[in-house]
Write the structure tokens for this entry.
Amino acid sequence: MNTSQDYDYIVVGGGSAGCLLANRLSADPSQRVLLIEAGARDNSIFIRMPAGFSRVFGTHRMWDYQSEPQAGLGGRTAFVPQGRTLGGSGSMNGMIYIRGDRQDYDDWRDGGCTGWGYDDVLPWFRKSEGNQRLSDAYHGAAGPLKVIDTPYRHALNAAFVRSAQEIGLPFNHDFNGASQLGAGFYQITSFEGERGNTARFFLRPAMGRPNLEVRTDLTAARVQFDGTRATGIECLESKGHHASVAFRARREVVLCAGGLGSAKILLQSGVGPGAQLQAVGVPQVKELAGVGRNYQDHLEVPVYGQTREPISLFGHDRGLSALRHGAQWVLFKSGLMTSNVVESGGFFDTDGDGRADIQFHVLPVLVGDADRAPPMVHGITLNPCQLAPRSRGELRLRSNDPLDLPWLDAGALADEDDVRVLREGVRLARRILAAPSLAALVSREIEPLPEFAGDDDAAIDARVRHYAKTVYHPGGTCKMGTDAMAVVDPQLRVHGLQGLRVADVSVMPAIPRGNTNAGTIMIAERAADFLQSERA
């Protein structure tokens, strides 16, 4: 094993949280910081190009996580791809900037996460945010993370927003403001026609600091301990013969490897349920029953509409059309390729409790899944997404080999209430699709399988279980709190251990009602403050 020099802090995972932490911690020139990323650098043009993100899927820049066959999905496997490059999943997402609603964070606080209520976390959202339109009690305008209105708006996305209003749903110009409810256009993390993520806005400006080292293509194998104190990290080179290299941390190791990765590293390091660790031959360091438990994700179900004219994005990714759009983006950073594609959507309350239980992601093209192609015609996809899943899953190790992907039971649609909510989301999507503005552009709803075309509960429920797929928001597997299943405390320290924290989406006790990237960035800001305050 090769041994490198010591560092004050080692940040494991160069995703949305890790890139921010590397910047904040290395701002003190007296502190040596190492950032480790399993994947490659983010030097692909399809990462920089906002509308090119689908080209990153299925490449070496993705973790190809898959579940065991899911009973709630009719025996199908759930595919949960995650980013494996600098910027993490922020290098291949739709860039949507959503925080969730106030009660999400108040529920965290009331569940034992002292200091994590909405009023507590709002300043940390605002600190990182550089909103180009909004500057008020809810929004920051001076932070590094540029947040803008969508620079390109497709006619189908705009028609969705009008159609939602035509059936009585309110328009909302700010989903992160006083109320989340309504339809509208998303704000996104982008700037000057290119993708905006924490690799661009936080890591890149810090790369010249002599006290920050960034190492890519290194897969974390295990945290090293002296008793119950974390002292460093052992890694395997991701390429070649997977040579082992170790790094020592004088102060702390911070895991930022994501909704599945951080729990996997803890388990590989001997932190987790003893019986599971013994079964795969991993010596136990600390019994923590909650590691890998509490897995949750947002699931969505597509509703397709076929357009009357060839106005969707179908076919624009190939031939002369692709060359024209690509050239416009390369030369002017304008046009279709500046779009995040998921330009519009909304948050809707289908059960009348005053909170959104459904979010829509609207795409001006028909979209399938990893194992399912969409109908090959021009159309629009309305994706109702279940925002507050009750279903929970679990992640375990398959073996003691750090290069093996984990065993995952996603628990998809295990709770019947999740099916009910998606059922109502499908019905709402059909109402919006039939409203005047979309009806003028869409000739009919497309349902490839006739057995799912009905509007009765049984037909829609069968449709939900057949089509439901991830929205790429897995989290919760290193739950924050003080109960028996909590993995980290409210300062993000792993219970019962010293010098080890987790700071990413995995610590969320419950994922918020919306896209999770903004919340992950907020958690990283809090982690940086905890570490800096304790050092002072």
Summary: The mean pLDDT is 96. The first strand starts at residue 2 and ends at 12. The CA atoms of residues 163 and 437 lie 5 Å apart. The two ends are 35 Å apart (CA to CA).
